[in-house]
Amino acid sequence: MTDTTALEAAAFRRLLQHLNHDRPDVQNIDLMILAGFCRNCLADWYREAATEAGIAMDKEQARERVYGMPFATWKAQHQREATPEQLAAFKAAQERHG
């Protein structure tokens, strides 16, 4: 019998590796435009899952788990200001997808 939870956890770890180490150049706004979620969304989902499991976790703790470092550190190292084009594309994506 396959342990689905273990496979899902491995896939989640691989996603974090990809986003934070292999492709930190991909900005959260670009993820939001194309996929409708970003690293912060993953952190929110992680925190919600912790809460459902009875584990106290705040927003910063969840973000540190997802980013692999304090969010402020990741932001200073990797996040750029959104361009006018990105902001326009984000607005259009929000309008399309409600």
TrEMBL record:
Specify one Pfam family.
Answer: DUF1244
Q: The SMc04008-like domain covers which part of the protein?
A: 26-91
Spell out the Gene3D superfamilies in the cross-references: SMc04008-like (1.10.3340.10)
Q: What is this protein called?
A: Deoxycytidine triphosphate deaminase
Biological source species: Pseudoxanthomonas japonensis
Q: What is the lineage of its organism?
A: Bacteria, Pseudomonadati, Pseudomonadota, Gammaproteobacteria, Lysobacterales
